[in-house]
Automatic annotation (TrEMBL), chain A:
It is found in: Nucleus. The keyword Ribonucleoprotein does not apply. It comes from Gymnopilus dilepis. Residues 1-17 have a biased composition (Low complexity). The lineage of its organism: Eukaryota, Fungi, Dikarya, Basidiomycota, Agaricomycotina. Residues 1-27 are annotated as: Disordered. One of its GO terms (biological process) is ubiquitin-dependent protein catabolic process. This is Elongin-C. Pfam families: Skp1_POZ. Belongs to the SKP1 family. GO terms for cellular component: nucleus. Residues 29-87 form the SKP1 component POZ domain.
Automatic annotation (TrEMBL), chain B:
Keywords: Isopeptide bond, Ubl conjugation. Gene3D superfamilies: Cullin Repeats, Cullin, Chain C, Domain 2, Winged helix-like DNA-binding domain superfamily/Winged helix DNA-binding domain. Residues 406-634 form the Cullin family profile domain. GO terms for biological process: apoptotic process; mitotic cell cycle; proteasome-mediated ubiquitin-dependent protein catabolic process; regulation of gene expression; regulation of primary metabolic process; response to stress; signal transduction. The keyword Ribonucleoprotein does not apply. This is Cullin family profile domain-containing protein. The lineage of its organism: Eukaryota, Fungi, Dikarya, Basidiomycota, Agaricomycotina. Belongs to the cullin family.
Length: 127, 764
């Protein structure tokens, strides 16, 4: 199994205490693609997706919330883009910067051949 | 569209079968075994493949089935039995409420989980299909399947009401169970803006409360005394407020408290305040400040409260005041009885009447003062120094103080008494405090001019007889009056003080003058009184002075008139006094007597036994005065003269002789004149008449003053203006003012305007 860790430097700005990990989302969760790639991201990043947020909701207590492993029914390459976008989103959401958000740059990084599949995935993941 | 790998093999039926199975698992609390992703994808796919309706209705059906199941297994078994044991009832009700809450909790958490899975449906399907999203559907179904079921609704509402009733009856209940249930009611909104709480619970609750408090009010009002009633009512208010706050809704607080006000408090307030053995009066009597404060606070709650309290206070004060009035009147009645017996004891009775008259006056003022103190204390400690209440107190005092037509005289006498013997057992500060209080009573007097007249009279006596405690005290009192009534009021009194000062200087100068020339045998000291400043009524009561004395008078007259030409001196012998050295058998005494008494005494230098008529002839003193002085000499504390036959009253055929056997422990003796302190009825009438006369002048002066500045005025305006200007002296009646105006028209100060007969014009 190949493991690609999307580094957390984007979201490591908060050094909150361990016990409030859940609340501020610095706990790690694993996102697995349908073709066996898995990404460790902070909960906060994962929750940039509405669907994944619900999936991980401890109150509802679905199996994903208990195991903290989410199977995402997408190809690894798609999931990676999703993760990249979620990092991007949670980063710019949290730092509240005045500088312009480089959406354009992000768009340019999306390979055209993935666009359609990514669109569907994004719709599904509500992100 | 890119082909999805599961696309071709998608079957709505199969997917729904899977999903329905899983939803049931969720409802059985087995979410932990289910994959969110899987179920979410099921729902997603169903929506994506146009089976949204099937999904939506399927879910709805499942939820309905589950709700029915919960209702039948949890709520209905918890229905209360018809037990009459309150403790049992209480437990059953608590269980029922908890059951409802359990179903609610179960339902909402299930719906929360479903909502998460069906998120895509909510985002995409419900809007286009014009059906409510799952969160709304959840509430709608709960409302429909649980709350709106008549049996459940009645049971639960009754249980809540009963729980409240238990608590009102003094039992403990599980408040949180009620609260949790009420919260469910509050969060369900069957139609816009109206919660189940508002629709199903609040109206019945208020109705029940009204019924309860109507009974409770009657019960309390009849079975408790006032303090207990107040305590209970206050406790009820607090309890109901905390009830709505803790386990009902704050939106109910106001209507509920209104019910308490309308049924527990307002209808009984009057009754309770006037309760005979424990009402307002008794509470004031017993200094029940806390109870009174409670009463006040409760009265503030309802619009009729304060007016009721105020009118009761007024009644109470006026009643007490009238008692004080009638006590003093009662004393008068006794006096009149004393006067009633035939001729012989008449004067004796009168003397008594006069002595007790002073006491009556002082007692009256003292009583009014302590009444005022009492109510002031209540006002301060219990009524929060409320301005409205204060004005009621003042009103009440004004009304009864002025009911006593002697109030002005009494107050003046009271002040007189304190300024005269102030040092008797009381420090100056104490006297000052008392006088300050007296001023507060004085404020209630409407006819300030009457008071002015009496006060001037008393002040004059004090000054002339040198009996005031101190100049400072007198001036202090004057200053207080000045603050109350303005400069005009005290102008003449200050004039009196001035005269006293100038007289002292003049006397000194005169004594220097006579020491240089031939001095008359009798040394005199004269007080020169400006005639309009002093309230001297008797125009120089005549008296034949012995030659030595009249010589002294003449000598002074000459001295004075030489210095001030154009002035006229008239002697007021009745106001003077004299020191005389008398040789009795045992020792020599120095007597201080009134001038008239000296004149009488001097007659006895020659003759041993004199008849009343001889004395009258020889002195020419007017009869009442003569009698008074003879009485002082013969029947007073020191018996300088002997009266034949002995007795207190002086009759025209009595005879008198010098009492040579007279002894007294001290050398210097002040022979007090029996004084008439409280006026007799005729004197009072006379004073009244004089005051009426004075008022006429005051009114005319005022009318002219007003007209002079305004030139033209309508009748009503003029009357109002004059009334307003004169109120600090007395209350002029419009009719009186009208008469004065007519009088002034006759005298051509004013005329009626030609265009409008009701308008007056000032004639320069």
């Amino acid at each position: 199994m190949k493991v690609a860790a999307s580094t957390s430097d984007l979201s490591s700005t908060s050094d909150a205490a361990q016990k409030s990990d859940n609340a501020n989302g610095s706990e790690w969760v694993r996102l697995q693609s349908s073709d066996g790639y898995s990404y460790l991201v902070k909960r906060k990043v994962a929750q940039a997706s509405g669907t994944i947020r619900n999936m991980l909701d401890p109150q509802s207590g679905y199996s994903e919330a208990l195991s903290k492993i989410c199977s995402i029914n997408e190809r690894g390459i798609i999931l990676e883009k999703l993760v990249e976008y979620m990092c991007f989103k949670s980063h710019y959401e949290s730092i509240n910067t005045k500088e312009e958000i480089p959406v354009q740059e992000f768009m340019e990084r999306i390979p055209p051949e993935l666009v359609l599949e990514l669109l569907l995935a994004a719709d599904y993941q509500e992100s | 569209m890119a082909p999805r790998k599961h696309g071709p093999e998608f079957s709505a039926e199969k997917t729904w079968a899977e999903l329905a199975k899983n939803i049931k698992e969720i409802q059985n609390h087995n979410a932990a075994n289910l994959s969110f992703e899987e179920n979410h994808r099921f729902a997603y796919n169903m929506v994506l493949y146009k089976s949204g309706d099937q999904l939506y209705n399927g879910v709805k059906q499942l939820v309905i089935e589950n709700l029915e199941f919960l209702a039948n297994t949890i709520i209905i078994p918890a229905f209360t039995s018809a037990t009459s044991d309150p403790a049992m009832q209480n437990t059953e009700e608590e269980l029922l409420l908890k059951a409802l809450r359990r179903v609610w909790d179960d339902h909402t958490s299930n719906m929360h989980r479903l909502g998460q899975i069906l998120k895509y449906m909510d985002r995409v399907h419900t809007q286009s299909a014009h059906v409510p999203p799952t969160s709304v559907m959840s509430l709608d179904l709960f409302l429909d399947r649980i709350i709106n079921k008549p049996s459940i609704k009645t049971q639960v509402v009754t249980a809540i009401l009963n729980q409240v009733q238990h608590e009102r009856d003094g039992y403990g209940i599980n408040r949180s169970a009620v609260k949790e249930c009420v919260d469910v009611f509050l969060s369900l909104e069957p139609s816009k803006g109206v919660t189940v709480y508002k629709r199903d619970l609040e109206p019945v609750f208020l109705e029940k409360s009204e019924e309860f408090y109507r009974k409770e009010g009657e019960h309390l009002a009849t079975s408790c005394d006032t303090p207990e009633f107040l305590r209970s009512v206050q406790a009820r208010f607090e309890a109901e407020e905390s009830r709505t706050h803790h386990y009902l809704s704050s939106q109910t607080t106001q209507p509920l408290l209104q019910i308490l006000k309308d049924h527990l408090l307002t209808p009984h307030l009057n009754n309770v305040i006037s309760k005979e053995n424990s009402g307002l009066d008794v509470m004031i009597d017993n200094n029940q400040f806390q109870d009174l404060e409670r009463l006040y606070r409760l009265c503030l709650k309802v619009p009729t409260g304060l007016p009721t309290l105020r009118s009761s206070l007024k009644t109470s004060i006026v009643r007490r005041g009238k008692e004080i009035n009638s006590t003093s009147l009662g004393d008068d009645l006794v006096d009149i009885e004393g006067e009633a017996p035939p001729e012989k004891s008449k004067d004796k009775g009168k003397a008594k009447a006069k002595a007790s008259g002073l006491e009556t006056a002082i007692n009256w003022v003292q009583d009014v003062l302590s009444l005022k103190d009492r109510f002031d204390l209540v006002w301060k400690t219990s009524f929060d120094s409320n301005r409205d209440v204060e004005s009621t107190l003042n009103e009440a005092f004004t009304s009864f103080v002025n009911l006593n037509e002697k109030c002005s005289e009494f107050i003046s006498l009271f002040i007189d008494d304190h300024l005269k013997k102030g040092l008797k057992g009381k420090s100056e500060e104490e006297v000052d405090v008392i006088l300050d209080k007296t001023i507060t009573i004085f404020r209630f007097v409407l006819e300030k001019d009457v008071f002015e007249r009496y006060y001037k009279g008393h002040l004059a006596k004090r000054l002339l007889q040198g009996r005031s405690v101190s100049d400072d005290a007198e001036r202090g009192m004057l200053a207080k009056l000045k603050v109350e009534c303005g400069v005009q009021f005290t102008q003449k009194m200050e004039g009196m003080f001035n005269d006293m000062r100038i007289s002292a200087d003049t006397t000194k100068e005169y004594l220097e003058h006579v020491s240089r020339t031939t001095a008359p045998e009798v040394e005199i000291s004269v007080t020169i009184m400006t005639s309009n400043a002093w309230p001297i009524t008797h125009s120089a009561s005549a008296c034949i002075l012995p030659p030595e004395m009249s010589k002294a008078c003449k000598s002074f007259e000459k001295f004075y008139l030489d210095r001030h030409s154009g002035r006229r001196l008239s002697w007021q012998l009745s106001l003077g006094n004299a020191d005389v050295v008398v040789q009795f058998k045992n020792r020599v005494h120095e007597l201080n007597v009134a001038t008239f008494a000296l004149v009488i005494l001097l007659l006895f230098e020659e003759d041993g036994l004199l008849t009343y008529s001889y004395i009258k002839e020889a002195t020419q003193i007017e009869e009442p005065e003569l009698k008074r002085h003879l009485q002082s000499l013969a029947s007073g504390k020191f018996k300088i003269l002997k009266k034949h036959p002995p007795g207190r009253d002086v009759n025209p055929d009595d005879q008198f002789s010098f009492n040579a056997d007279f002894t007294a422990p001290t050398k210097k003796i002040k022979v007090p004149t029996i004084s008439s302190k409280v006026e007799s009825t005729e004197e009072r009438k006379e004073t009244r008449d004089r005051i009426e006369e004075e008022r006429k002048h005051l009114m005319e002066a005022c009318i002219v003053r007003v007209m002079k500045s305004r030139k033209k005025m309508t009748h009503n305006d003029l009357v109002n203006e004059v009334t307003q200007q004169l109120t600090n002296k007395f209350l002029p009646e419009p009719l009186m003012i009208k008469k004065r105006i007519e009088h002034l028209i006759e005298r051509e100060f004013l005329e009626r305007s030609e265009e409008d007969r009701r308008t007056y014009r000032y004639l320069a």
